[in-house]
Amino acid sequence: MKIAVVGAGISGLASAYYLAKHHDVTVFEASNYLGGHTDTHSVEVAGKALNVDTGFIVFNEQNYPNFSQLLTELGVESQPTAMSFSVSNAKSGLEYNATDLNKLFCQRRNLFNPRFYRMLWDLVRFYREAPSLLEENDDGLTLGQYLTINNYSDIFINDHLIPMACALWSGPSLSVVDFPAHYFIRFMHNHHMLSLTNRPQWRVVKGGSKSYVDALVRQTDAEFITGSPVHRIERHLQGVTLTVHGEKRHFDKVIIAAHADQALRMLDQPSETEVAVLGSIDFQENEMHLHTDISLLPKNSQAWASWNVRVGPELQQQCTVSYHMNTLQSLTTSEQLIVSLNSARLIDPKKVLVHRHYAHPIYNQSTLNSQRRWHEVTDLQHTFYCGAYWGWGFHEDGVNSALRVIQAIEQTQQGVANVA
Questions:
Q1: DSSP assignment, residue 197?
Q2: Cβ 396 vs Cβ 363: under 8 Å
Q3: What is the model's pLDDT at position 137?
Q4: What domain range includes position 375?
Q5: So what's the pLDDT on residue 420?
Q6: CB-based burial of residue 392 (10 Å sphere; 0-12 exposed, 13-18 middle, 19+ buried)?
Q7: Do 33 and 140 sit in the same domain of this protein?
């Protein structure tokens, strides 16, 4: 079959890689590079060229089995990284790094701070009690409601749990409390984040995440076309027609590996089901800067961590996240390389190396409901949808989504297409 793949993020790339073994696959990417959130930049710092990741950065073999298998097939190496987490509150001045006791109490005054101990107590209590919610399967309860009902302290909520969630999902602090509690706790439980010990070894792709993109493109017969946004997708009985740069291209099937809102804009005549399912998944744009301004890290260097969250002076302000790339990628330079999200007003413009925008899904009950309806839009008029947003939004979810679409395509070759 002739199959078009729209979007060259992890889902589109994985779809193309596996399908091209048996089909004629063409990948259309709107931007001028392949990879989507896999975005590696070669920057010169102190006379040395370094490859720095600014989108997808870390994974672990335990929770990313299919992505890890893909790396193995491609012959791409990875290396262990140190994962640590810090919080810096711009209003209260609180700073801590959760790596060890010395860094946890890097501000020695917290040794005598009852509120700080309450945060630690609630942290242990949350780890102990939260998994019991998984047995109840109550999707209607939000994270904010769960925390209120169980009398968790403000310092635990605002100076630990919300910053942690903001770092994980690159989302604003206010949206985090609207997460379905069951969904949030399931993720943390599956990733062994509700335990103080036995956590998985996190890894980074050696030489930068783009290494796997380059290897994949070399090892597949799929055709990749960048700088080519798909303006329209028309469906008919015999297949689909894509309009790209004013030219019409005909295919038997199309896999839309772009975000749900982008997919809807491409469809010439979306069905009511597609409008309902795809239109209920929202995305937030996040502004990324790769820079060398250490003022975005905690004031106390003992608190510097792999992931550093700054809590704004006002509760309604979103948390900002800064990733310390020297630590994460083991970069050998005296200059501190930092990836910060939504922090433009805080960064010295003279120290900015790269500026990008990424979009991330917003996880609420509406998104969760749409995820459960994926089968309703599968092979709907020869059209398939995949992307990490159908799962938790991470690289493994992107690969899983691609594998699910591939399985659906194989099944439709043997059965009847979905025409609902």
A1: S
A2: no
A3: 66
A4: 2-39+209-280+364-414
A5: 43
A6: buried
A7: no
